[in-house]
Amino acid sequence: MDVFSPDQVEKFKAIFEQFDKNGDGDISAKELKGALKQLGQDTDTKTCKRMIKTYDKNRTKRMEFKEFLDMMANVFQYHLSHPESKTGNGADIAQNRKLEELFDSLDVDESGYIDEEEIIKLTEKLGEKMTIEEVRELIGQVDKDGDGRVNKDEFKRLMSAK
Fold first, then answer.
1. For the chain, which terminus, N or C, has the lower number of CB atoms within 10 Å?
2. What does the CA dihedral 85, 49, 43, 72 come to, rounded to 10 degrees?
3. Could you count the other beta carbons within 10 Å of the beta carbon of residue 63?
4. How far apart are CA 32 and CA 52, in angstroms?
5. Residues 112-149: pLDDT tens digits?
């Protein structure tokens, strides 16, 4: 993925290495939290664990530099396609954090997606009964990448729609 210039890759590498305390080439959720904070993204350890789970291709439960760079590329591409998210004012950041917390509470299995089963369980808790067809239709209205699930970006777009 050639999203970044060689100079940008080197800057990310320097940040990554700063938090790879033992120099073994990967970082933990706690170390990722520190790296993201240095990049201006204040997040909690639980969210960092989910990020690692999402990008951890070899399932080590730690993030290697290539995985870190893939994550940063996705963040960069998201901001390019959502220029309104670059404002960075306090209200936007607070709203974004609230939406992420809401998503996390709905993502019961911590997969990074809200799926049919989670929506059915939620509606049952709310005293509603939805058929699988209704749930699929609901997901289809939000599911931009067509994978049959709602990811965090799709959820935030839906909840932020005016």
1. C
2. -40
3. 30
4. 9
5. 999 998 888 887 777 778 889 988 988 888 888 899 99
